[in-house]
Structure formats: C-alpha cells, structure tokens
Design a protein that fits this description.
Integrase_recombinase_N; DNA recombination; mainly alpha; 2 domains; Integrase_catalytic; Tyrosine_recombinase_XerCD; single chain; 15 helices; DNA polymerase, domain 1; 3-stranded antiparallel beta sheet; hpI Integrase, Chain A; DNA binding
Length: 346
C-alpha cells in the first residue's frame, strides 16, 4: 500500500502563516521586502576612525569626562570595527580597566572607572545609532549594566572646620586673595568647579547681585550672591584684567586658572589640616555643606533650586513640578546664610 505524504508536512498551516504576517507587521516589513535583493551594507568604521568624529561632536565637558576612557578604548580596540565587540568583551574590558586603576585612599574598587568606561562606550554607540551605522538592537553597550553606584562618603563640613579651612587659605600660599575668593564663591553658590571656571565678567549682574552659572549638562541659572562677594568678583576682574567675554578667575599675572589651582589648594590645606587629607576633603564637600544647610533651614524645594537641579532628573517625583522654588527663595536663603541683605530676598 502506498502512503501519500500529508499536506501539512510541506506547507505551513494557516496559524503559522498568520503568526508570520503578525511578526512582519510588527517589524514594519512586507513579504515584498523579504523578496527584494539586500543592499550591500557598508563596512562599519573602526574605533580609531569613529571616536575622533564623536569627540568633535560633543561638548567640552563631555569630552573632558570621556576623553581618557576613549583613549583606553583606542588602546585596546583601536583597529576593531564598531560592530565587532560583544557584551561579554565589554565586560572583560571593564574588568581590565578597573584592575588598572591607581589605588587611592578613597578608592572604591574602580567602580567609577567601570561606570565611566561604559558611559563612554554608550556615547560612541549612541552616535553610531544616529548615523545609521548600527541599530539599537545591535548596540552591545546597552546590554552591559553599569556598576551599582555606592552612597557618597561626602557630607557637610562643620562650621568650625569650615573656619579652619578659610583661615589656612587666607594665611598660606602664593595667592590668598584668589584662594579665599574661590572658597567663598563655592560656599555661597554651591556651584561646581566647572561653573566657577566658566564664569565670565559679563555674567555678573551687580544691580541684582546675581551671577550666571553654566554647569554640566549644559544647565544654566542665575544664582544670587552677597553684595560682598559681588564686590570682590568685580575687583578681581579689574585687578587681573579679565576680558568681558573670557574667564573671570585668573592668576595674578592674568592667566586663567584651571582645575590645577583647586588641586594645589586642597593639597596645601591637607598639609596644614590633617583631617582634610585624611578624609580627602574637596571642593564638592563645600557644595554638600551649603545645600545641607539650605535644605535643613528652607526645605527641599529651595535646596533643589539652589543646587541648580532640574525637575527632569526623575528623582523628585511629580510633586516637584508644583513646589518649585524661584530666585527670590534662593536669595532669601543666601541672605540668611551670609547674614547680608540681598536685593531679591523676600
């Protein structure tokens, strides 16, 4: 007896056809797309070819943060194409970079280096997505989680300790006027180093005692300062011949300062104050100090505005949309902090 082949053995069932159609619809494809001759895909560029293009397309701040990590990627993978590394290889590179981190007293196992390396890779691949070199589904950096960030060890500095810092800065070093101005600027405004270094004479509003701060993430804000600080900023501009559209903070010979001035300042303070060196106190501790005081005395909304945090960070909840503080609120907090009246305080 001859057995005939079952029709279902060579042809798809109606359910399978429907499933295929549904899948194609979700992918935005048609049967004709599958029949078309595929176009030749261009060869993906190497990291050595593409990273310089990304570096030229980002802001100075982004380049400063990721530059050293891009150099490490170039060292290890310069001749590899963007579409070659796998998530497992990225994890291996993270382990290698973390192992190469120079151990310091406040080191945390290279977590920061691993986090920044992944962020630097994600920046490269994000541009590659935008340029049509890869798809989001093929982005290997998105498949590697960043190391969990540990709680910060920074905290507010006590008033007595803050007085010690200011005293040593004012009585040591080759430019006490510059160092005390830096400290007061950061204590009053809680600005970051980048914000202070980006400050220009044209960013001063002496009438309303405001300065225009430009900080990371291209955020900007008008920040109240005391009349005393405004007077010193103007005097510094005059004495050090700072052009209106150029950097305000300068050495005595007129050269603009860099982050090295901060490094030298805190190294010197650590030599005179052992607890500064032991706890690795830095300028960012001053930001913690001021914002903690503002939050304790004027509430979370005012502290958030004082810090220049936006409501798009996603860490404050929907309520932050309705309880925003304004410049008058931050000016009121500043007046209490400095014990000086401010033109905009309530």
């Amino acid at each position: 007896m001859t057995v005939s082949a079952s029709p279902s053995s060579n042809t798809a069932s109606s359910a399978e056809v429907d499933a295929a159609r549904l899948l194609l619809a979700r992918l935005g494809l048609s049967p004709e797309d599958l029949m078309a001759t595929p176009a030749n895909r261009s060869v993906s560029p190497t990291f050595a070819e593409y990273i310089p293009l990304v570096s030229a397309a980002v802001t100075d701040g982004t380049r400063r943060v990721y530059g050293s990590y891009w150099n490490r990627i170039l060292h290890h993978w310069g001749n590899r194409r963007l579409d070659e590394p796998t998530p497992s290889e990225i994890k291996q590179l993270v382990v290698r970079i973390r192992a190469d981190v120079v151990p310091r007293r406040n080191a945390r196992g290279g977590r920061g280096a691993g986090e920044h390396l992944i962020a630097a890779l994600r920046c490269v691949y994000r541009h590659a997505e935008d340029d049509g070199l890869i798809t989001r589904a093929d982005n290997p950096a998105l498949k590697v989680p960043k190391p969990r960030r540990l709680p910060t060890t920074r905290r507010a500095v006590a008033d007595t300790r803050l007085a010690e810092i200011n005293h040593v800065a004012a009585t040591t070093g080759n430019d006490p006027a510059l160092d005390t101005l830096l400290l007061r600027l950061h204590i009053e405004t809680a600005c970051r180093r980048g914000g202070a270094l980006a400050l220009r004479p044209q960013d001063l509003d002496p009438t309303q005692c405001l300065i225009f701060l430009r900080e990371k993430g291209e955020t900007t804000r008008w920040q109240p300062v005391s009349p005393t600080l405004m007077e010193h900023l103007q005097q510094h501009t005059h004495d050090r011949h700072a052009p209106a559209a150029k950097q305000l903070l300068r050495y005595a010979d007129g050269r603009p300062i860099t982050t090295r001035r901060y490094d030298h300042l805190w190294t010197r303070l650590g030599r005179h104050l052992s607890w500064v060196a032991t706890q690795q106190i830095s300028t960012h501790w001053l930001r913690h100090t001021t914002l903690t005081w503002v939050e304790r005395n004027f509430g979370y909304a005012t502290a958030r505005a004082y810090a220049g945090h936006t409501t798009t960070n996603g860490d404050a909840g929907t309520t932050a949309t309705y309880v925003r503080a304004d410049t008058h609120d931050t000016a009121t907090a500043l007046a209490a902090l400095t014990d000086e009246p401010h033109p905009l305080s309530r």
